[in-house]
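stage 2 :: seqdesign
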């Protein structure tokens, strides 16, 4: 066991960051502070938890979780000799924790349960298998057009004001998963309460773990929420073979926290003031998604808000290079053209009906035609009969599929797609395989025989 060591010379206090002098040779000791190690800062009549974020020749920089109020240059810093740990056992299901890993729901004591380190390396690729299992969400714009696959890492790109939190909560209660791990970053109390109430009302709270950093909590804890959630998810997947769905909202708040800390540490800023390692910081979290050859899986679904609806903003821009697609949410709908699931071909037609691929491609092709026909109509061009059919189809498609409140099983959505096609077009106008038309195209109702 490491010997706890203390230092009492605080060189600098900047925001929530302090720098402590380490004597020459101090870094070579077995008990020396290491990157990400925890420490306790003893201030004036109080003590606060801190984490090592930078090591230099004769100094160590630490983030103080609860802020530096009461901390002075005469304060003592005691290093604990281990990184942040999170409680892991079956007892954490149905519990709520804050960004330090402490329970905040008033439930039973968990101090005797095992604790595991967070922020470890991504799983060895040799222990992964190719993503090939469907996750049903009962959201047609996901299940039919951008299918979610186990072990996928995918964000919801949105602008402020959209109901992305309600949508994320709905996926959490409807998705086909054994365990849901929720991480809230900088949530206002109303959003936190809405998530918890939604999980409880749906009867899924018993399989849910919540890690919550509210807007009034220290910003340092915001940076730990993804690591806490993913560490727990990995354990459930590896040790218990569970299919785990991790929900994080919102990763732009996580990036903003990184930005604030990097500025306080006088780091050279990159694009729009964000740290130069933003890509690496995001990738280290997203790459935790995996389908284990011997175990379960971790699927990662996040929210990334786009300031000013700017997809070239550093956070969504870097995220798009890491993840396997995105769901683009705007005007209360999932945009079929801005959304993408790069893994859907692994399950479409293999774990779904044989008409899935053709229905997906045909409906999107016709909806694109409907958009063009609407533009012609707005510019007062003459419309053909086929244009009128396209416009009618576009109206039905938006109403029946694109609204995020639509709730139906995949097979029901495919059947409704065929009904929508039949309501607007003749079979020969669809340009689909004849065997699928013969099998699925709705047959006209027989006329009643005359008396």
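stage 2 :: out
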């Amino acid at each position: 066991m490491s010997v706890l060591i203390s230092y009492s010379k605080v060189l600098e206090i900047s925001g929530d960051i302090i720098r402590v002098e380490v004597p020459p040779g101090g870094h070579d000791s077995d008990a020396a502070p290491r990157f990400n190690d925890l420490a306790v800062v003893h201030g004036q009549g109080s003590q606060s938890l801190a984490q090592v974020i930078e090591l230099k020749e004769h100094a160590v920089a630490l983030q103080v979780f609860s802020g530096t109020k009461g901390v002075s240059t005469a304060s003592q810093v005691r290093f604990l000799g281990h990184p942040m740990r999170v409680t892991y056992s079956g007892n954490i299901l149905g519990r709520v924790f804050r960004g330090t890993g402490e329970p905040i729901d008033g439930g039973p004591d968990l101090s005797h349960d095992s604790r595991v380190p967070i922020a470890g390396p991504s799983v060895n690729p040799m222990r992964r298998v190719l993503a090939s299992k469907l996750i049903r969400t009962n959201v047609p714009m996901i299940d039919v057009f951008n299918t979610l696959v186990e072990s996928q890492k995918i964000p919801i790109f949105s602008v402020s004001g959209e109901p992305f939190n309600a949508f994320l909560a709905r996926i959490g209660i409807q998705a086909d998963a054994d365990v849901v791990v929720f991480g809230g970053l900088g949530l206002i109390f109303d959003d936190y309460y809405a998530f918890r109430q939604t999980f409880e009302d749906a009867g899924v709270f018993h399989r849910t773990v919540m890690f919550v950093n509210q807007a009034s909590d220290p910003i340092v804890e915001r940076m730990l929420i993804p690591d806490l959630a993913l560490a727990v998810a990995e354990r459930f997947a590896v040790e218990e073979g569970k299919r785990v769905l991790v929900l994080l909202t919102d990763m732009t708040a996580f990036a903003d926290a990184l930005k604030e800390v990097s500025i306080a540490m006088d780091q050279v800023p990159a694009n729009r003031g964000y740290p130069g390692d933003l890509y690496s910081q995001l990738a280290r979290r997203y790459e935790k998604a995996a389908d284990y050859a011997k175990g379960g899986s971790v699927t990662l679904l996040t929210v990334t808000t786009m300031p000013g609806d700017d997809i070239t903003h550093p956070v969504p821009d870097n995220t798009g290079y890491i993840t396997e697609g995105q769901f683009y949410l705007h005007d209360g709908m999932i945009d079929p053209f801005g959304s993408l699931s790069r893994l859907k071909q692994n399950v479409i037609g293999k774990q779904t009906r044989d008409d899935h691929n053709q229905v997906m491609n045909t409906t999107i092709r016709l909806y694109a035609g409907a958009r063009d026909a609407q533009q012609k109509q707005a510019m007062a061009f003459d419309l053909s009969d086929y244009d009128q059919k396209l416009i009618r189809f576009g109206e039905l498609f938006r109403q029946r599929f694109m609204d995020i409140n639509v709730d139906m099983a995949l097979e029901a959505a495919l059947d409704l797609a065929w009904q929508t096609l039949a309501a607007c077009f003749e079979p020969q106008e669809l340009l689909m395989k004849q065997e699928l038309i013969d099998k699925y195209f709705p047959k006209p109702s027989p006329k009643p025989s005359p008396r």
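stage 3 :: structure notes
- Residues 95 and 253 are 23 Å apart (CA to CA).
- The longest strand covers residues 47-55.
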